[in-house]
Amino acid sequence: MRRRAFISDTLRVAGAALIAGGAACDGAARRVPHTQPVRSGCAPGGIVAGAIPPDGIAPGGIASRQLRGTWIGSFKNLDWPSRPGLSADRQRAELADLLDLAERLRLNAVLLQVRPTGDALYPSRYEPWSKWLTGVQGRSPGYDPLAFAVSAAHDRGLELHAWFNPFRVSERRERSGLVAAHPARRHPRWVVEYGGQLWYDPGNPAVRALAVGVIGDVARRYDVDGVHLDDYFYPYPVGGERFGDQATFRRYGDGFVSRADWRRHNAELLIAEVSAEVRRIRPWATFGVSPFGIWRNVSTDPAGSLTLGLQAYDDLYADALAWIRGGWLDYVAPQLYWEISNRAAPYAALVRWWSQAVAGTPAELYIGQAAYRADAWRDPAEMSRHLDFDHKQPEVTGEVFFHARSLATSRLMSPLTREFAAPAPAPIPRRVRRRLSGPSSLPPADWLCRHAITHCPTGHV
After folding, report:
1. 449, pLDDT greater than 90
2. Can you give the three-state secondary structure of the chain, one letter per residue?
3. Which homologous superfamily does the CATH classification assign to the domain defined by 66-423?
4. What pLDDT was estimated at residue 447?
């Protein structure tokens, strides 16, 4: 069952049931008994994924709502495509394999990196085709990868979240490597060279406007289920170097004595502007960020965590706590890539800190997990211990694994298969649940069923 059209009365019934913790597609899906074999959320006995209690497992073997996602990275061909220059058919086949893996593990979302370096994995009027597709920036792969990805993910009952890097331009310092039409070539004052790479200057309003325009364009043209930003705002610090935004600060920093406060303000403006744009264009989609896992250490700030590491607030100028409290995020997925026994950044202490950070706010808490480190951890059961601990934290409503190809490692396949033995639908953002409770504000006719994780033959119901 995919993208069923419902009449308005059915939508109102379904929306009311959703608010009460009932079925997303309950009103329509139960008209005919569900008799197909279980596959990616289809269940016998008339139970559709989404028709579940708020907690626990429904009688049909469907788990309660939980985000189960994985990042699919395109930067430096981390996950997909495996190398630049593959044929369109080979690229599609590789992505299908990754989506099949996610489906087999009973995940329900993939976060696909569509803007890795100021470029695009789709035809864009703002930026050139990504070189990670064809090996040559600006060269078309001969098809629309994002359109294919959205369709292929939905066919497998997976949400597709478009993942953007807002400020990275190039992993190299040579601007000559950018096509002539690249915004960074046409507007050289927007760009700062730092750490041997090129970065857009977040303090320039035109740079933020470009990022918002790019994201809004994707939200408008593609049936994405969410918009996602990663941890790169201002770049990670490089010893002995200063980020060269002095001129920008002089021009746009009125009212700020501290450049650090101004930088945090710039990142906050981007978050607020992207949030408003996504909610205006696609109000039923989620917007979230995966910040570096340490906001501040308690030794720096009494409100910080019991950690001793790099601080996103001070070193990346990313104040995720302010973004959460501002109501701009539907979820936050901090990257907690450390072991439980790690002395500088103990996993459990960080989960508790982030749980307190989202408590009483509209933001869901998903935990970013280091799947890529699983084979290197001394304890082979480390990931299982993470997931077991998270189960006991009421504020934790999802897990996101970095990165997709790492999920096939021997240390992960068994615990994830065991952990996700039953399929689960993705959470409905609290903001959307509130909106659905209104009698006059209805989602698109196909939206509710997409959040029922199903894969049924056409015409089944």
Report:
1. no
2. CCCCCCCHHHHHHHHHHHHCCCCCCHHHHCCCCCCCCCCCCECCCCCECCCCCCCCECCCCCECCCEEEEEECCHHHCCCCCCCCCCHHHHHHHHHHHHHHHHHCCCCEEEEEEECCCCECCCCCCCCECHHHHCCCCCCCCCCHHHHHHHHHHHCCCEEEEEECCCEEECCCCHHHCCCCCHHHHCHHHEEEECCEEEECCCCHHHHHHHHHHHHHHHHHCCCCEEEECCCCCCCCCCCCCCCCHHHHHHHCCCCCCHHHHHHHHHHHHHHHHHHHHHHHCCCCEEEECCECCCCECCCCCCCECCCCCCHHHHHCCCHHHHHHCCCCCEECCECCCCCCCCCCCHHHHHHHHHHHHCCCCCEEEEEECHHHHHHCCCCCHHHHHHHHHHCCCCEEEEEECCHHHHHCHHHHHHHHHHCCCCCCCCCCHHHHHHHCCCCCCCCCCHHHHCCCCCCCCCCC
3. Glycosidases (3.20.20.80)
4. 54
